[in-house]
Amino acid sequence: MVKVGSAASLRENQYAGSTEDRVKELEEMYSDKEVKAIICSRGGYGAIRVTDMINYDLIKRNPKIFVGYSDITALHSAILRTTGLTTFHGPMLISFVDTKDEFTWKYLFEVISSYAPSEIIFPKDQQPKVLRQGNAEGRLFGGNLTLLINMIGTRFDFNTEEKILFIEDTDEKLYSIDRLLLHLKRSGKLDRIAGLIVGEVTKLSDEEIPFGKSLDEIVLDVCRDTQFPIISNFPCGHGEHQMTMPYNIMARMLCTKDRVSFTFLESAVV
To answer: HSE (CB half, 13 Å, CA atoms) of 243?
Structure first.
């Protein structure tokens, strides 16, 4: 059975109802004993506005599968910080409007089930690229780069120590990605990570005067005095292929010169 949230049909300018409406909807879903999983309809902007008003004790008492990406990163960060619960950076309903991508469907259902996948089989048309070789094991954390930056210095700030950090974004300028990554570095979030995964950064554009570096070159420049392994073009984020990434679950990445192996080391649900 599928239930539709109470704010799904509301409208307040660009939001699905007021901030209060959306908080009420989320808390209703977490309170509903019949609801086993909550999948967000879409991102955009607005999740960060509800984070200060949510009853996190309610969420902790009623753990559920919670899935979304992009702007939903704010909720993932807040829920993990306040409750320690695993949530899922993965496809939303809007992701399936124009596609039924086999890779996206397969790993969404596998990851949110009790099955811990073996090594991920990447889409033939989107193989991750090794920017720096090496191996890493750690708990997963990350999401939309812009939203992660917005969490720094708030009560939902995050710890990246010994984590495998994954990032994605959309509709940004090259110089803006450089600035966001520099902020991440200067705030100490790259100091002790185990590894870095750069997901898709879609709709990336340049200025009339070129920035002069590609996305991969920007990442390597910002991370030049670090030693952790780095991969890019990983299928998570705003692209066609969307890997479901469970927060706070142990994973392993093995990066040789021309191959990436990525494996979850434990189930994301009990």
So the answer is: 28
